[in-house]
């Protein structure tokens, strides 16, 4: 994947140098610009990497920095980019905002001539949001939808009931207003309805697998992961355990402490 790519008329992707099992090829930092306007909006500056942040700043002037959520692979570089550009930082979580009020649901904004709509999508994390670019029929999804694979419900902050509601909301939106998904990690997705149908079906399948694992005698989240995620690289099992805990909580089943832990 190219580290710099114009994906839609208004969205330029700059790939952060933080590849890994959880971040795929790295964090997608998005530079949004209305044609003809020199100013831009930066979404998810990514990690605290001086070279990456300087590269992003070069595409300024930056009018605003937006965070899809507070996980460090998306937000850690925001204060430094604020210092480099003077641009305020806005997020759902007030603690992450610098010189701006928190994002609110279905708020239409016009920044640097660029119109976008905030869609609150809790689930992966409690503060997750997506951003709709109506003119490009594009949705920036953060970690709510990934370009490859499926995302972690980062329990206990992330909750599966919220996530399922968010996926259904995006599915309804995709059927009316979307042609492309711009994720926080991985490639761009050009079949939003099919992607969201898959995400919803995948979650239903995993729930059934968790029920079956518990019925078969799995006594804690780690044992459920070993049964349900046997086809997944074990390096991802700590993150999978967080999703299993979210599933057990959703099903009203006890989640005994296992032996693994997750970070994202």
Question: Would you give an account of this structure?
Answer:
There is one protein chain. The chain has 264 residues and is α/β, with parallel strands linked by helices. The protein contains seven helices and eleven strands. The chain has a six-stranded mixed beta sheet. The radius of gyration is 18 Å and the shape is globular. The chain starts with a strand and ends in a 13-residue tail after the last helix.
- Roughly what percent helix? 25-40%
Count, helices = 7
Q: Calculate Rg over CA atoms.
A: 18 Å
Uncertain parts:
257-264
Q: List the helices and strands in order.
A: EEEEHEHHEEEEEHEHHH
β-strand percent reads 15-25%
Number of structural domains: 1
Could you name the CATH class?
Alpha Beta
Distance between the termini: 23 Å
CATH architecture type: 4-Layer Sandwich
SSE class: alpha/beta
Short description:
The protein has helices spanning 50-57, 72-75, 78-85, 160-177, 192-215, 221-228, 237-251; strands at 4-6, 11-15, 28-32, 40-43, 62-66, 89-90, 108-111, 114-120, 129-133, 138-142, 180-183. With 264 residues, the protein is an alpha/beta fold. It has a single domain, classed as Ribonuclease Z/Hydroxyacylglutathione hydrolase-like (Metallo-beta-lactamase, Chain A, 4-Layer Sandwich).
